[in-house]
Amino acid sequence: MRSHVPLLVGLTGPSGSGKTFTALRIATGIQTVTGGDIYFIDTESRRALHYADRFKFKHVPFDAPFGSLDYLEALQFCVGRGAGVVIVDSMSHEHEGPGGMVDLHDAILDRMAGDDWKKRDKMTMLAWSEPKQKRRRLINGILQLNANFVFCFRAKNTSKPVKGANGKTEVEQMGFMPIAGEEFVYEQTLNALLYPGANGVPTWEPEGVGEKTMVKLPRQFRALARRPGPLDEEVGMKMAQWAAGDDAAVDEGGDEGRAVSDMGEAHNDSEEGDTSPSAMKARELIAKAEAVRSDFDLEALEKEAAPHLEFMADDWAAKVAAAIEAARPVSADQGE
Predict the structure, then answer these.
(1) CA angle at residue 175 from 171 to 177, to 5 degrees?
(2) Where are the domains of the chain?
């Protein structure tokens, strides 16, 4: 029987979508069921204090550096002092903020290759090893903490070049994508997308190719897709009741919402069933690695893979890295 399952709620959206206010509403609802204090880890220049008159929470200002393990230390600090719910706004600094994952990668690359740009290209993938290991320690650490979490992710409207049916390069609109590693999204119990000006009203069936993979609404919460208005205290309360073992709290109509993206089902646990952006790009890169026939091919592949590995889920990134490494001796032999 399910009992006291921690909730990890993700809110993804650009500035002005209502993430901060919505996070406080959801956390307040969760607190009515679980008890404990609400702690707010604030990386956004004390923005949470704009709502201090309306919501009761303990404010934890969090400044740079924004390393993965710095985030883990802040979370452990809150839970160690009795937090029942921890809000993090914004989690995106862990990725692109000062001292974050991208900064760490660049610093390691500087140490390994300096200003030798050819060497930097070759070492780029290796330089991601330490940042990714630290992020995995953060995620594993979060999963060990006995509390509920609401993570706010900044989002940006993105696109990527793809080859069309006619063989020409076309631009595919990905939509608003979280500034974070996919690993975080996969670990969320629920991940909501808030468009600009949404004021906390989620979009559960977005149009963007990337957005479809980032929205996560598992079966037990599909009634939310039919619920009008913003995510609020009642939503937080019902999710917490479900997490405490009350299935009736959120079951309001069976499976009518099956069209809504459920990453746990739509992507399947098997590699063959995984249609996430990480999986699709990884398969493409692995196929190219298997076709490498020269040092020139290998160098071109490494340049292509480097920016994608930054955002790719750990398991797929490891597969791509292994495929490229396996191609290296073949290309070297043929290049002699």
Answers:
(1) 120
(2) 8-266, 277-330
